[in-house]
Amino acid sequence: MKTIIKYDWMYLVRTSKLFVIGILGVLLAGLSAVTAKYFHEIMAYAFRQEGIDVEFEEATVFESYNQFFGNFNQFYLFVVLFIAVAFFTHDKTRGHYPLIFSKPIRRSTFLVSKSLLLMGVVLASLMLSAIIFGYYTFYLFDEFAAGLFILSILAYFVYLMLFVHVGLVFSVIMQSYMGSIAMTIIVFFVASLLTILDWNLLAYLPIHLGNYALLVMNGNVPIQTLLITVGVGVVLIAGLIALSISLFNKKALA
Question: What is the reported pTM?
Fold first, then answer.
């Protein structure tokens, strides 16, 4: 497994995908706090230039949280999905499988190592982003719920990894990168539409974690609900990995 992880690590570094994930997270984190703090002032200034005197309420720390998760859902999530599917499919699309599996490498080890490496990279990126965001938020708003925010970040990580591993399944099933990413994005949008199903046990579906990560910061979702949903998400991710391995073991190495 160490050899495969080293090989995949070099791919992420060589193609700059590692740096894109890291730098994008840091930039969005810093901009989220700054935008939340000064957006109202910028809008008020713009209206005054047009002769309109409008007073906006002072920004609160909750607007900073809203801006952070809004930015990450709109930009970071999609960048990670596109990179993840490219990462999962590049050996197949470049015809590397016969060479790779001419060595004593188990297919399960091959997939699990990719999954673990990508999870580690994204988690490190999110943790670094959380530190940057926490620093600027505390500096600008004089408050920051660090413990609760880390919990929210971990929930968001599980949410993101759920769709990353949907991408893993399609990367095994389909022959091309475009087909794999297209199906992954379709599943994501369908899941987003299904978030209206939030009654009884359906409230614990991990497709809600993208919203719960923010709502728990605002006190609108109990921590217990968040933790149960995270647990369900972890189980589903493990199931997707197992499904990917099962499908991959049956595929011909063309």
Answer: 0.93
